[in-house]
């Protein structure tokens, strides 16, 4: 007799509510099994039929690091489209490819770590390419669209589970794991939290990843904001995945905790659910959790909370059901979408009637270091196909109409012995790196040791030298292979492109006597010539080789010749995403590298009809006074070249818009670590200077007229509408933008703030209406005096137009709102971080768990201002809660010192607070000024009768 099949456990029953299924599976796991789930690589539980699971699959603009995939434009390029519908379709394609790739490779994960919603506050941030915009409204609109695409359209099951990066206030790579972003409450609520909040509230987010940095003195991986803010925005369980290595940083680099057990327990209690640390080896993290449990730093309930959130994501992905989603990979639709996205991302910055060009009747010179490149970045997938600007233009204009000059310097490197650096010919490469027809495999990777190393000889190899700025250069052999250094220290021509976490294809030429030393940047060591080949010198080795730099041809000479023969010159300039501005490395300047500026000048001098096409991950400050045309696009993925060619030819009218301010000079920039966008007057919201190009800027081959602006104030929103008419003679897109400005604010408010936009496709003569429902909450600001959002009564300007500075229509609405009230200091006192103005201070952690305090920057002197404090009928005493050494001086308005309070004995630690009191008579409403002297922490000021 056959034994009856036991019934499936409740967690396998798709008819049950999700919460019941999660609870059932959780109840069946042992504490040891649950603890093992806390590492990124969660093991299988075979007795329950639960498979292994990995959190984390990079998918910023396509599936990354898992081999060939469709590569879409960089995130900043997707932001430049200002087109949520397009970005949603890109997200759908990426999620389909993730599913299809997982079907053949289980290493491909479905918990995708994308998108990045860090705001592009500072254009020198090395990871500028990863974000969408400096504006929280635009960022959230694009991020919401991408997450909806990644989630997929199934009513129950998610195709992938997107995790937002990087929580919170993260815009610097310089010392990123030890620097603290000082974020005042208004900036926190109105700026940094907002992009995360609106995206989470839209309902397609599975979780977030904390950033490496600290905020207000506390590491993001133990941030109370995860509990106080993030998890209050949705009823869904949100998964918090640590950034790689960040849990260990809490002790190793940040020294925030004394032991890893304390740190791991604090992160888990704060809300981190999955620890990405020590690669695939989970034993270290699991051991820390177990010891924390043994020492009473954690309870099983803490572990359960984290595992429950993990399981919730896995159930939504359909892991425990018979849900089948085969996905789709490299389809014609995905290829077409990649080109559409690249076309929509192109921004026409300037055009003095030179563009569009006439195919068939125009002889082009296409020049520049990026003219024949299709660059990838750290978070790109592997290209299945590619299109460079040169290839795209030759296809569109005809190969016979396009001349190419890369503009690299052609050099020989001569040794002291009179020989020259020599690259072995491609035919000397081993058979396994050759294609079927004997051609060198274009997918050669740096790090190969089976290729012959460089040698020296009487006949040298002519190398292509490209200087990418800051003295960082690449050297390339005639067959296109980049010189690279492998682990054995030898130089080989082995790389298809510069790349890798530590780039091994970059060098510096350092003047030395009558020659140059060649330093390899990846190892920091100089190049030497040895009997067994050319290699980098060992740390204890003697004098390195001194090379004579023999210039065969300057790049600008080749550019000038090509430019002089052409009708129009297209200079393609920009950055290599792996060099001088990337993850781990911030930029130092907005200027183009000197090498590329020389090429641009040479082209312009030889031919006044010169177009500059910037292909870059970030803005530049370029002198365009004598340039008739200027375009920008982010690195556009596999279809970048074809897209640029179609825009230049007029097949597509450009309609990309700048997602961030382009500043005219480095002097316009705030400090990289100044996160106070209000006090520092940063981004288009507050910047009072003249930008090179403003936020939202972008030109078209058509012209557009705006009219009929109407606004009506309702109970919950302001309804705004206006018309846009294509008055040109070509079909084109226009991005209609709506901004708001408080006309009579009681506190500093944005000069103008984006509240809506529409990308409209209009035929010649066609008119469309743009309608917006602007919620009244969009007019609010964070009232630090009362700790909440408030809409201020009074007039507000509504500004409609083509950019933040190109305003075509305006009207005014008057809102009732809530009148300002003085600070109720008798009831609430003054939280030190709730200041209206400050100078010379930074916000720090009040305790390791929660709260803020304020301290003078560098322990010197700082001042806080609190406006309109109501003392009622009068007070007689002031108290301060402080830690550390120094003095707090209390002043009213611009008067003398009312009270000075100094701790008696030095505190035993930064969190050892004491409360001091002193007589202080005040009544009525006054501004309060607090002067802080010395390395103290001020948490709170109180007043009493």
From TrEMBL:
InterPro entries reported in the protein's UniProt record: Actin-crosslinking (IPR008999), BXL (IPR044993), CBM6 (IPR005084), Cellulose-bd_IV (IPR006584), Fn3-like (IPR026891), Galactose-bd-like_sf (IPR008979), GH (IPR017853), Glyco_hydro_3_C (IPR002772)
Residue ranges annotated for the Cellulose binding type IV domain, each copy included: 823-945
Gene3D superfamilies named in the record: 2.60.120.380, Galactose-binding domain-like, Glycoside hydrolase family 3 C-terminal domain, Glycoside hydrolase, family 3, N-terminal domain, Immunoglobulins
Residue intervals of the Fibronectin type III-like domain: 734-804
Any one Pfam family match given in the protein's UniProt record, by short name: Glyco_hydro_3_C
SMART domains xref list: CBD_IV (SM00606), Fn3_like (SM01217)
Keywords recorded for this protein, A-Z: Hydrolase, Signal
Family that this chain belongs to: Belongs to the glycosyl hydrolase 3 family.
Name this protein carries in UniProt: Glycoside hydrolase family 3 C-terminal domain-containing protein
Lineage: Bacteria, Bacillati, Actinomycetota, Actinomycetes, Kitasatosporales
């Amino acid at each position: 007799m056959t034994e009856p099949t036991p019934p499936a456990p409740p967690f396998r029953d798709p008819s049950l509510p999700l919460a019941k299924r999660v609870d059932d599976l959780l109840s069946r796991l042992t504490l040891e099994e649950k603890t093992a789930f806390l590492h990124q690589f969660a093991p299988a539980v075979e007795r329950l039929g639960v498979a292994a699971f990995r959190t984390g699959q990079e998918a910023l603009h396509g599936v990354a690091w898992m081999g060939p995939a469709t590569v879409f434009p960089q995130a900043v390029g997707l932001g430049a489209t200002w087109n949520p519908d397009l970005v949603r379709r890109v997200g759908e394609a990426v999620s389909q490819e993730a599913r299809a790739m997982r079907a053949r490779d289980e290493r491909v994960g479905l918990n995708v770590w994308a998108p990045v919603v860090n705001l592009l506050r500072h254009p020198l941030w090395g990871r500028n390419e990863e974000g969408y915009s400096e504006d929280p409204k635009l960022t959230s609109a694009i991020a919401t669209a991408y997450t909806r695409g990644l989630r997929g359209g199934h009513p129950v099951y998610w195709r992938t589970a997107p995790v937002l990066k990087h929580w919170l206030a993260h815009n610097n790579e310089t010392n990123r794991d030890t620097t603290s972003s000082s974020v005042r409450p208004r900036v926190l609520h109105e700026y940094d939290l907002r992009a995360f909040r609106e995206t989470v509230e839209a309902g397609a987010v599975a979780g977030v990843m904390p950033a490496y940095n600290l905020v207000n003195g506390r590491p993001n991986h133990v941030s109370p904001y995860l509990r106080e803010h993030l998890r209050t925005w949705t009823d869904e369980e949100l998964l918090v995945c640590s950034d790689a290595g960040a849990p260990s940083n809490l002790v190793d680099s940040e020294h925030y905790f004394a032991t890893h057990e304390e740190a791991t327990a604090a992160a888990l209690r704060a809300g981190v659910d999955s620890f990405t640390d020590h690669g695939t080896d989970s034993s270290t993290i699991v051991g820390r959790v177990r010891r924390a449990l043994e020492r009473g730093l954690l309870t099983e309930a803490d572990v359960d909370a984290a595992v429950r959130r993990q399981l919730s994501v896995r159930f939504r992905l359909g892991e425990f059901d018979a849900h089948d989603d085969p996905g789709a990979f490299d389809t014609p639709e995905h290829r077409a979408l990649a080109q559409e996205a690249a076309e929509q991302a192109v921004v026409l910055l300037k055009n003095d009637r030179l563009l569009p060009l006439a195919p068939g009747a125009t002889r082009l010179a296409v020049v520049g270091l990026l003219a024949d490149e299709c660059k990838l970045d750290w978070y790109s997938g592997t290209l299945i196909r590619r299109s460079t600007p040169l290839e795209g233009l030759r296809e569109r204009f005809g190969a016979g109409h396009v001349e190419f000059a890369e503009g690299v310097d052609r050099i020989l490197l001569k040794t002291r012995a009179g020989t020259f650096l020599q690259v072995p010919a491609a035919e000397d490469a081993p058979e396994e790196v050759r294609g079927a027809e004997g051609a060198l495999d274009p997918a050669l990777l740096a790090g190969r040791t089976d290729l012959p190393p460089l040698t020296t000889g009487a006949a040298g190899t002519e190398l292509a030298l490209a200087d990418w700025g800051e003295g960082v250069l690449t050297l390339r052999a005639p067959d296109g292979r980049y010189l690279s250094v492998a682990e054995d220290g030898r130089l080989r021509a082995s790389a298809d492109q510069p790349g890798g976490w530590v780039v091994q294809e970059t060098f510096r030429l350092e003047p030395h006597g009558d020659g140059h030393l060649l330093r390899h940047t990846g190892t920091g060591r100089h190049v030497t010539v040895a009997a067994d080949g050319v290699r980098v010198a060992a740390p204890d080795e003697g004098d390195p080789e001194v090379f004579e730099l023999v210039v065969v041809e300057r790049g600008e000479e080749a550019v000038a010749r090509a430019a002089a023969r052409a009708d129009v010159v297209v200079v393609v300039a920009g950055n290599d995403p792996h060099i001088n501005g990337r993850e781990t490395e911030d930029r130092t300047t907005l200027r183009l590298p000197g090498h590329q500026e020389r090429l641009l000048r040479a082209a312009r001098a030889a031919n006044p009809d010169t177009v500059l096409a910037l292909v870059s991950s970030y803005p530049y400050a370029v002198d365009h006074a004598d340039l008739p045309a200027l375009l920008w696009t982010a690195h556009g993925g596999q279809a970048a070249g074809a897209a640029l060619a179609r825009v230049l030819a007029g097949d597509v009218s450009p309609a990309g818009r700048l997602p961030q301010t382009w500043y005219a000079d480095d002097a316009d920039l705030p400090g990289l670590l100044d996160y106070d966008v209000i006090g520092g007057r940063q981004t288009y919201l507050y910047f009072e200077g003249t930008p090179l190009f403003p936020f939202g800027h972008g030109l078209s081959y058509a012209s557009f007229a705006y009219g009929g602006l109407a606004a009506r104030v309702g109970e919950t929103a302001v309804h705004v509408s206006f018309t846009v008419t294509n008055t040109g003679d070509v079909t084109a897109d226009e991005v209609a933008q709506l901004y708001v400005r408080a006309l009579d604010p009681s506190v500093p408010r944005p000069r103008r703030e984006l509240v809506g936009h529409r990308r409209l496709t209009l035929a010649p003569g066609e008119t469309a209406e743009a309608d917006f429902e602007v919620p009244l909450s969009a007019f609010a600001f964070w009232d630090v005096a009362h700790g909440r959002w408030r809409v201020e009564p009074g007039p507000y300007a509504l500004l409609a137009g083509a950019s933040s500075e190109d305003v075509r229509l305006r009207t005014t609405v008057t809102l009732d709102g809530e009148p300002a009230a003085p600070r109720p200091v008798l009831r609430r006192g003054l939280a030190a971080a709730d200041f209206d103005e400050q100078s010379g201070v930074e916000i720090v952690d009040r305790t390791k768990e929660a709260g803020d305090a304020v301290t003078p920057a560098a322990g010197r002197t700082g001042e806080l201002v609190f406006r309109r404090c109501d003392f009622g009928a009068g007070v007689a005493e002031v108290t301060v809660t402080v830690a550390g050494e120094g003095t707090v001086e209390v002043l009213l308005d611009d008067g003398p010192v009312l009270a000075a309070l100094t701790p008696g004995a030095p505190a035993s630690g930064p969190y050892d607070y004491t409360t001091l009191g002193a007589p202080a008579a005040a009544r009525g409403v006054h501004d309060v000024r607090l002067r802080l002297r010395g390395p103290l922490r001020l948490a709170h000021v109180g007043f009493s009768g």
